[in-house]
Structures are given as structure tokens and as C-alpha cells.
Amino acid sequence: MTVPQRVLDLMHSPGVYFCGDPEMDQAQREQLDLLYDINQTRQSDPKRRELLSRFFAETGDGLYIESPLHANWGCSTHWGSGCYANFNLTLVDDGEIFIGDHTLIGPNVTLVTTGHPIRPDLRERYAQFSEPIHIGRNVWIGANVTVLPGVTIGDNTVIGACSLVTKDIPANVVAIGQPARVLREINDHDRDYYWRDRRIPAGI
């Protein structure tokens, strides 16, 4: 990762900032060129791992990301070990994203750390703000989920498909909806059934 520290400090600082900085523009162009290379690389190519390590802030062992991947920066996203992301993951990662070990991300998921002020004159000047997203260990985020700025999702939690996560979700629950709300806790039933009335085979 070669993004200048001054650019990272600007993006990761609290409050409103303006994104027309020439050094920031140059750094983002370089990151997007690197992202292009990642998306053109076969999963079997050993070079892919090296490209991902250069692109992201952290890449844990066993990280596997399907192409295409979309990201504003990459250098603000931290991956734990054993993570998997399906097709069309979008990272609006001007702010930092932290993803815990063994987290699974379904297709067409969007993680958004960044927004723009409601005040029109500030938007005309390309003002924005970023708040970090924290996703715990062993989380499953279903297909077509969107997570908004500043959200924390606790360990082991499942976010149901097509949810819009606007507020923190605790650990060890199933949450779903727009906006996402806790549906139930993960419980003893889940030890025996993997989906609806489908029983987990003995010995697993």
C-alpha cells in the first residue's frame, strides 16, 4: 500500500472534509489502477494474492474474494483470516472498514463508510464525511445487503439478504429488514437445523 499518510489521515479524520485534494486524486487513481489489475487476474494466479496485499490495508490468511470487486480505495479496508466475499462486493471505503476472521459476505453487498452533508452548498464543494464500519468475527452477511456509515455488527451474527443496516447490530443474533432489526438470537435450534426444517446430518 503506497497511499500517502497525509491522505489517509484526511480521509479517516472525524468531521467534514473536501475531496478535491490533488495528492488524494493521484493516490486514488493509482489504487483504482491496482483494482483493475486485481479484477483481470485469475483466481489461480499467485500474483493475485500479492495484488490484494498491496491494495488493502490488511489481508488475513486465506482471504478469498471473487471478481469483480469494486472499491473507492482498498487501503482503508482491513480483512481478518479465513474471510470470503462473493461477486460484486462494493466497498465505499474512504473511511475504514474492519472485517473479522471467518466472515462470509454474499453477492452484491455494499459497505458504505462515506456520506455527504445535507446542506447543498457543501455538496457543491465536494464535501463528505466518513465513519468506520466494524464487522465482527464469523459474521455472515447475506446477498444484496447494504451497511451504512458508523455501523458495528457483533460476532457470529447473521444479516439476512436485502437488509439495510443503519444501526449497530449485537453479537449472536439474526437480523433482517429495511432498516435491519434483530429478528431473534442464535439458539439451540440452530445447532440441529441448517435451514428451515433441514436437519444437519449427524456427526457434523
UniProtKB/TrEMBL annotation:
Top-level taxonomic group: Bacteria
Keyword Transferase: yes
SMART domains, per the entry: Mac
CDD domains: LbH_MAT_GAT (cd03357)
Designated name of the protein: Sugar O-acetyltransferase
UniProt keyword annotations, A-Z: Transferase
KW Disulfide bond (keyword) present: no
Database matches in PANTHER family: ACETYLTRANSFERASE C18B11.09C-RELATED, SIALIC ACID SYNTHASE-RELATED
